[in-house]
Every structure is written in C-alpha cells, then in structure tokens.
Amino acid sequence: MRLRQTLLTSFFTFLFLSLCPLRPLRFVFLSSFFYLQIIHKILLLVMNWNMNSERRQQMVNDWNLPWEGGCRCGQIRFQVSAPPLLTMACHCTGCQRMTASAFSLSVAIPSVGFSILKGQPTIGGLHGATRHYFCPHCMSWMFTRPEGIDEFVNLRATMLDDASWFAPFIETWTREKLLWAMTSAVHSFETLPNYEDYAFLIEEYAKQASKPAR
Fold first, then answer.
1. CA gap 193, 47 in Å, rounded
2. How far is 171 from 188, CA to CA, in rounded Å?
3. Which of 1, 98, 107, 200 has the fewest CB atoms within 10 Å, i.e. the most exposed one?
4. Can you give the pTM of this predicted structure?
C-alpha cells in the first residue's frame, strides 16, 4: 500500500503540471530529461500493480465498463475499459482558453484502458511536448497525453456519451477562476494540491466516487 501511494503521488504531481496549458512552471519540469525518465519508470511500475483478475473484473462491473464517447461531429470515437483514478476541474487561464469556457473537466484513465475506435485525432493547443488531441474536423479538445508519459490519458469528461455520472472530485487553480464559476468538487485548491496530498486524494476518490448507473 505504501508503494502504491508513493507511485500515485509522483504520477499526479506530474499530471497536474502537464494539464494546464499556459502554466510556466510546467516547462521547468518538462525540460528535465532525467526527471522524465524517473517518472516513466514509476508509471511502468504502476501499471504492474498486483491486482488479480477477479478484483479487476469487480472494478469493471462496479464502473459499468466499457464506456464509449466521441467528438462533437462524431468523426472520432473512443472506448474506455479501465476505471478512472481521479476526476478534476481546472480553473487556470490556460484551460479557460483551451475550452473557451470557465474551466476544463478531466478524467484520468490508464492508457491500457483507452482506445480510439474510429478516426485519427490531431494535435492542437500549444503544439508542445505535451500533446493535446483534437478532432481534425470539429476541433473538439478530446484528451491529453503529458510529455514522456504514454501510460495515462487525461480525458475530457464531456466527450463521454454518458457523462451524467461525472463530478469533479477536486478543483485546481481556483485563484484564477471566474468569480461566478462554481463546481461540486469535494476538495478545492488555490493552485495545486501539496505533493503529500495526492495519495490521500486518490484513495478517497476510490471510496467516494460517483459511478455510472448500470
């Protein structure tokens, strides 16, 4: 359990630095090749958690998997077959601009449980090392793959066919939010959570998360 918490803490610290498109601190971390190599090795260990097939099937049933979704025009379709690790809303100005809205909504999904069924997403946004994927026709911002990390996908929640179950468990960068913008997030952070908070947040989400109806 302690190893699992350490691995999850390291992953989500990097994930949130990669999530916000205009966050200057992001580029400090992304410029470090050594740091990326450490994170990559950690994520490989995450994907090899000791979970037997019976427990895995129980999680699939609990979350009513698989899910499907797609872009606004329907030219891109995808499937999710693994449970989320965390749900979030980000109020940073970068996400406001990327979504043309008050905040972005995201679901963190292991890449092994995410697949494209139809079409070919294209890279948009800042066109940097962190890859933001869009539909090439309707330009819907669909998901993000952080630089050097192929093990996880940060999926935009409203791309799911059924997003009625979704609620952000945490919200970040509230100090940059629009004054009227409110969410139902259980935890709110002016910037990002403290490093030591991530393991607790993930474990708490696993216990309290709202799930799709069967």
1. 23
2. 5
3. 1
4. 0.74
